[in-house]
Amino acid sequence: MSNMKLTRRGLIKTGAVAGATGLALPTYLRADGHAGFLNAPQGSTVTLGFNVPQSGPYADEGADELRAYELAVEHLNGEGDGGMMNTFTSKALQGNGILGKKVEYVTGDTQTKSDAARASAKSMIEKDGAIMITGGSSSGVAVAVQALCQEAGVIFMAGLTHSNDTTGKDKRANGFRHFFNSYMSGAALAPVLQAAYGSDRKAYHLTADYNWGYTTEEAVRTSTEAMGWETVNTVLTPLTQTDFSSYIAPVLQSGADVLVLNHYGGNMVNSLTNAVQFGLRDKQVNGKNFEIVVPLYSRLMAKGAGANVKGIFGSTNWHWSLQDEGSKAFVKSFGTKYGFPPSQAAHTCYVQALLYADAVERAGTFNPCGVVEALEGFEFDGMGNGPTLYRAEDHQCFKDVLVVKGKEEPTSEFDLLEIVEVTPVEQVTYAPDHPQFAGGSLGTCNPGA
Amino acid sequence: MGLNKKDFTLLLIVAILCLFAPFILNPFPEGSALAQFNAGYPDLMQRLVIFGIFAIGFNILFGLTGYLSFGHAAFLGVGSYAAIWMMKLLTMNVIPAIVVSVLVAGVFSLLVGWISLRRSGIYFSILTLAFAQMSYSLAYSVLTPITGGETGLQPKVDDPRILDRVLEISTSQRANLFGLDMNTSHVVRLGDWAFTFNAGYYLAAIVMLVAFYISIRIFRSPFGMMLRAVKSNQQRLNYTGLNSKPYTLAAFVISGMYAGLAGGLLVAMDTQVGAERMFWTASGEVVLMTILGGAGTLIGPVLGAGFIKYMENIVSKINKSILEQWFAFMPDGIEDLLITLVYPFIGKGWHLTLGILFMLVVIFLPGGLVEGGQRVGRLFKRKKPADDKPDGKTTPAE
């Protein structure tokens, strides 16, 4: 090797050339080259971002959402029994990942704070190259992350968010919601309440003092007043309130004979328990039995409130005791994997993940604009809610809504709610420019490049 | 620049760290198992310097005067709301947003400080805490039309944006600096490594350097000396006939303005405000940052802020499947055991890890990370003199 002389000049030359080739290949993140959209999947995998509350007040829902996502990834990759992929009317999904790419995922903790949720979603987009963000268990977080995804140029599939605003004044082109909303709760509940309690009632509202509370109160008030009820009073309660006795006492003096609790999570558990302890349900007012209504129910809340939920009406997006093929398949594969039935949060998240994957398959591209096009106006069935439409005007799913009642004789710790009525979709459909949803615009889809 | 040699070196080191942060924070190649620990992506880098500014400002009050404010997040929040409203009403250019956020936070802190500083010690802390929680509740529900309540505020397509409309600049809803988009990133690939250079980060870093420089000048000024006098014995200071209140109030307002600046920058980098930004845990976080890094030191708060934000964003994202990848090479039994042992400390358990580290630092390094650095430094210094001591081998006994 006598001709391999290492000279100083030679070394500098090679170094310069090597350095130049390395540095001469800059790529702009925004332009992301050939694909034409942000975070185009490279290689044989695609990364999804599951952004759920793992700490804070909705950690239970978050944990259930994450279980559902893990199940969905299994099914998408062709492992497990396939769950709802077998009952889904669209047969685009093959069980070989999405567009042949194996599905991988990253997780983050939203902490149920919009800042933390955005930080976590941003790191998924910027660091892990996630092509879609999904999850969340509160409307504040959903709106914040939806706006971020619109700006960044990825798809957002909302998790549990019930406020009208998510697909109302804060709707975005890159965001989609499968879950139902406050308006639908009100519209579904009103006829059932009329049948059960009559049309001559005086209602008193206790409302959690934040956006979701406001929209729910407005929705329930409007629907019940339309059938002849009178709203005696509406009182806002702080979100951090744990003892509601001071709010319950004035209810009796007001002459009202129905109490509507626009509360969710721990709020609802506490206010309902207080109301029952005060003996409201044994009272006779205006010659009628005093009644309590909880617009948004979840199994996890019913569990917290225990025996107090017996006979109390509310609405829910989905319940595991539904007997259609989709629900049965989902409950079976969820139960096999985890040993207990899924919550409505788990259901909506699982469905959202499948809907996204299916839309990509049908569009033939991961490009967010293609996915938006595939989802807009998409009609499907077999996902547990009957025939469902993803409306193009506001990216809201329209499907049947369940009116449920606390079960009088629960047989297990999961069997707490019974379905009273499946309200048909026509009854909960509204115009995209309905006053409760006015003031926003979708804008145009953003592929981020 | 009016700095002595030691301070100038410190400023220079911080400047170099900021400049090369994209390299320093991305030490592991893409796709490797350790890439999980890379922190060199724009959002986290921006947060590191912005919360650095927040902590520097807090340290001017807490480190110098000893007044422990438990409500600094309120100023950060007020600054953020001011900034987002500038973006909604005037222009998406970040300059007006940042300037106004500092001013509004200054006025608000003057009001809060003027009332709270009538008391000292724990009473002062409680008063500031009460103000901050009040601001939080106002923002979360009472003032919903102005603050957006739970859903917060984001720029929308149909916002007025008067300046942008009049000057016909652009209709984009992205924060920019005279057309330079804050999200613009330039990725340099060197082999398996990818380094991201982000416009917003460098803007924030420059602002942080200016903030750091001002903080050094305050520390070394007669005004800073007076603040230290307040900390060591305010009563004695009062007995000498000096009214210390203007000094403490000035320190309070300055640190409030720093918080407002941080809030404005947060909005400039990520155009969204939520009320949680003002929650008391956010106020507590800046106290943790300052103590963890070293209260009363110049660089300490920046280190503390970086440390906590790193934990929050990196450790919280490690999940079970990543652990399984890491330990996959081990035999099944040991793998499962290790995963069970480590699992409580990652993901949602990041608070636990942070808490343990915080306890360790406070117990063993009361001066924070800076003291740790000094100890390591001393370890090397002590060796050197030991080498040329006259009683070593080389020197004869008599």
TrEMBL record, chain A:
Coiled-coil region(s): none
Organism domain of life: Bacteria
Matches recorded under Pfam families: Peripla_BP_6
Entry keyword Signal: yes
Leucine-binding protein domain segment(s): 45-407
The keyword Ubl conjugation belongs to this UniProt entry's keyword annotation: no
Keywords from the named record: Amino-acid transport, Signal, Transport
Annotated family: Belongs to the leucine-binding protein family.
Name of protein: Substrate-binding protein
Organism: Roseobacter sinensis
From TrEMBL, chain B:
A Pfam family assignment: BPD_transp_2
Name the UniProt record assigns to this protein: Branched-chain amino acid ABC transporter permease
Keywords, alphabetical: Cell membrane, Membrane, Transmembrane, Transmembrane helix
Membrane topology, from the record: Multi-pass membrane protein
Keyword Transmembrane helix among UniProt keywords: yes
Lineage: Bacteria, Pseudomonadati, Pseudomonadota, Alphaproteobacteria, Rhodobacterales
Keyword Transmembrane in annotation: yes
Compartment annotation: Cell membrane
CDD domains referenced in this protein's UniProt entry, alphabetically: TM_PBP1_LivM_like
Protein species of origin: Roseobacter sinensis
Organism superkingdom: Bacteria
Main localization, broad class: membrane
